[in-house]
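Changelog excerpt

This revision adds worked examples to the README so contributors can see how folded entries look when concatenated. The first example is reproduced verbatim below.
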Amino acid sequence: MSRPVNSSIPCPECSGHQFYVDDPRDEISCFTCGVVLKDISVNEFIHRGKQENKQKPSKNIDFSLCDHIVPPKVDRKPSTRVSINQGITYNHKSPDYKSMRKAREFLGISKKSRTKIPLEQICPPFSKPHSTNTMDLSSSIYDKERGIQRGKERIRTNDVDAIIARLFWSVFASPPTRPKRKAKDRWASNEADWIVWELYVHLTLFKESVDFPKPWFISDWQRQFGLNDKFLKMGGPCNNNSLTMIDQVNIELADNPENNCKNMITGMLDLFEIFYPNSAKINTEEFAAKASEIFIAVANKAQQILLSPMYYKSEKLQFHTGELIGELDDGSQCWKEVRHVTYPMHQIILGMAILQALHDENRLTLGASLIELIQTEVELFAEYSWSELAQNWKGLMAENDKTSWCE
């Protein structure tokens, strides 16, 4: 059986930091891209990971590295309840079990429900539990009575509860990158907001969780699912793979902004129909191709806007993960913030390209809701003002012998 492991050692193929370790086979594989690490044993991999994470005994902790102190666990009376699934599913102490349990609590589909987002609210755009088979389920158990796959490997599917469960590996896998309890200064609090943010990143950037990335507006996501400003200003701690994907997208937008743009525009139009079902349908393959041509024509000339990071009240937002650097004698944990990255606001330029394509077809009235979304996004989270964006767009269209939709 394989187990999830977070490691400071990056994947040589995709630079991801989450791996599956198969102890019987002495094999390590990357969760994100599936590549198998060569010429390294499980023991050596775990040992090197611990060395690079610089975990030290309490008496040797360098407090100059410590950003946050997480108080010790409060002892509670252990539960004596026996699960009816014992002996059928995977070990109840495993990271997979704990992570899946937390995910199902989050969605309100477990007996011990602490619903943060109801399942029907998030699906679509995500897929409901037991609805996808896009990852290896060969070693899971098929439940004939319920007609579903059960067992350890279901956490590898692209169902929404499995996606959330893999986020909770940040807490339960070894070494963790997010503490189980909030720090004394409230760092790592707002767990529900953390998951809402991570789902946004998965939807808008990850190719693994949806058919293709579906860029959307953080201001509207915030309105739909209640993402708190406090988390955005705190910036984490986030999932390591999310930060890797944000880094990769920043590089792609700088070097090859035209890559995958048609799929991203199609994804944005998909979400527009999901979140605004009463709006007129404009998502066709032909229209997406026209909008992507406009985006390609301006992308290299609009790098300053395209690569502009997310801001909040004139402050640039950065997102990070955590590193456990040691424990004190009383059980308190010392944590350090690492890997600070900025989120690119490329959804604004994608939206502008869609509106320009509508304008060119004399159908701009169909984009009224989209105009409001972009204006709100710029007002709340952009480095520049709406008037600056509109003026910049007019200049870009003039260079391409077009009249801007902003005029």
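The second example, added in the same revision:
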Amino acid sequence: MIMPKDYLNFLEEYCDFYDGLVLLEEEKMKVIAENKPFLLEKIIKKEEAAVMKAQGLENKRQEMQETWAPGKTLREIVDSLPGEDAPRARQLRDRLGGAVETLRVMNQTSADVVVRRLKQIEGVIRELGEQSGQGRSLVNRSV
């Protein structure tokens, strides 16, 4: 099986996109750590736009892949490649997988930090409510 050059070029673009998402997630984690909610809203809007772009890129990847390797995963395709494109394809597959895993871990870490912050705020509000006789909960679930 020979991987088309346009698919390899697309994978490069796909990796660049996910590398950019990692940078955005790093920015979000910094804003969360510095407790700057006014900046967090801007980042979340960028993330929402990025999610839409990611869906479009994934659809394009699947469409391209199905035209010449129907029913195969990216891993199966890359693992079976002979020839000169194999090293580049493996590098791109690994790069993409690494970026996706990094995003997953960073996203979970951000969510954990936000939940901890909300629980801290809830504790302060509860104390104030108990002092005034009106305790309320802001966080009733775990993320």
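Reviewer comment on example two: The chain has one domain: 5-113. The chain has a mean pLDDT of 88.
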